[in-house]
Amino acid sequence: QRLENTGTTGSNNTTQYQIATNSNSLNISVNEQYNYSQISQAGNAINHYVDANNHFFRNNSATELMKIDSSGRVTTPYQPSWNTRSYGHNNASTGFTRVGSNDNGGTVSFTTQVGNGVNNGRFTAPVTGTYWVHVNGSDSSAGNAGLQIWKNGGNHLSSTAYLYSVNYNGTGVSAAIYLNANDYVEGKFVHFNSVNSALYDGSFSGFLIG
After folding, report:
1. For position 81, what pLDDT does the model report?
2. How far is CA 25 from the centre of its chain?
3. 107-149: pLDDT as tens digits
4. What is the pLDDT of residues 35-66, one digit of tens each?
5. What spatial distance separates the first Cα and last Cα of the chain, rounded to whole Å?
6. In 3D, which of 20, 42, 40 has the Cα closest to residue 29?
């Protein structure tokens, strides 16, 4: 390996250094005029910039992937997250209604997300990590029902938030859940005890913790 000063370029007083190997190189640029430095690796997509107040991680298209500002706040505009709402589902006495879906005649009123992981009441993890997941809802039929969070269709991974015997009673439940890439989670309004219940209104949301 060797460290080379590759010279000053243009009128911006940018001094460039390069740590080189036989097959690759790490480039370090110091710009005195605009008071920033840059670290990048040839052929790779991530660049690290440091100026007087911020740390930035950007790709080769200069898209900002993460920033740490002078107050220590971290922003990650491409961090996976989602929120979806459904309402007006029909009565059922067995099985479940997925919150944020059109199950049992429901209407999905909106879906907002970073990425495209959520579809009709199911969030599929784009990357491996721990996700914070929340589901809430209300029962229009004063039935016997509960809200639960399920992983991959067969693993109940939250407590049960019960809705019994009161029209339009609402509640919610949350959980931190580890997902591998392509695992999925659903927020389920579960119909108990062969008693009619109906999801009147609910939302299903979450985000990647890390």
Report:
1. 98
2. 33
3. 999 999 999 999 999 999 999 999 999 999 999 999 999 999 9
4. 666 767 665 656 777 887 888 888 877 788 89
5. 34
6. 40
- Summarize pLDDT for 64-115 with one digit per residue, the tens: 889 999 899 999 999 999 999 999 999 999 999 999 999 999 999 999 999 9
pTM confidence score:
0.82
Helix ranges (DSSP H) in the chain:
none
> 8 pLDDT exceeds 60?
no
Burial (CB count within 10 angstroms: exposed 0-12, middle 13-18, buried 19+), residue 33: exposed
> Which amino acid is it at 207?
F
Query: Distance (Å, rounded) from C-alpha 196 to C-alpha 45?
Result: 54
CB-count exposure of residue 31 (10 Å: 0-12, 13-18, 19+): middle
Instruction: Provide DSSP, 133-178.
Output: EEEEEEETT--EEEEEEEETTTEE-S--EEEESSTTEEEEEEEEEE
d(CA 176, CA 188): 16
The Cα–Cα gap between 47 and 58 comes to: 5
Closest CA to 186 of 200, 206, 162: 206
